[in-house]
Amino acid sequence: MERPGELVPLHYVSLGAQGPEDVLPDPHGRVLTGVADGRILRLHHLGDPRAARVEVLAETGGRPLGLELLPDGDLLVCDAERGLLRVGTGDGTVRVLADSVAGEPLRFCSNAVALADGSVYATVSSRRHSLDRWIGDIVEHTGTGRLLRLGPEGGEPEVVLEGLQFANGLVASADGTFLVIAETGACRLTRYRLTGPRAGRAEPFADLPGMPDNLWREGPDGPIWVALAAPRVPALDLLHRTAPAVRRAAARAAVRAPYRPSGTTGVIAVDDQGRTVHHLARRRSGFRMVTSVGAVGDHLVLGSVWESGVAVCARPAAR
To answer: What is the CATH number of domain 5-314?
Structure first.
């Protein structure tokens, strides 16, 4: 992979709340995000820090992570504590679409995508570790991530894919024939076929120089933007090749130890063939652990589960 270009920071917008984990641009140039206290926020005028404004849309009563806009303007919300939710952006109503799967509570629901046929796919990052112990799953390399499908008729979702390494971001291809899944713990993107002779099968899509988190597609034909929450760690790659008992012991230690994110910030954009369109990075960044990225006008907006605001950066020229 070629050397990354410079990720150029412009300004920071404080939200007065911890952890805007996913940032989702809407058709009007605003940005939606969920924060640690359970609120869903809408951010206005992020291009001008003096005019920026924060509006509260709803409270989920849990911990919102991935967001997905529906055609009617409502939001799909993956809540790490409450499951898969539908949130009204007009009146703030919160409705639970699914809170269990395969006979167990739906926990650590991470990202969702709605397809044209009315079905919803969602990722579950881990069945062994909760959100507050996420690093335990990364270290233990449990492979307990899942991809779920909720049919147009609703009900309980079905498990369509298992064995994912911390399943995270999720988007559909431009033609709707496959999904792209971010496997944070494996530093890769995975393709899940929806149609054709390989429907229902997963295959490699792109290897990455870091740990991917949320994914966001820029328009129906635009690239897929990938937030890199951390660079690759060679020592972690070696640990993942050791025996399960060794990894479990290391995970217990990691959960107890204080965590400090890397100072390297990065984002990547790929096309529907998995080819890199943009790769931007910044070393010794003051804004750490980028978990989401979206484009609004001439800017990239970065979210972070670690920070208490969003970063606004220069958008690269089209390639």
So the answer is: 2.120.10.30
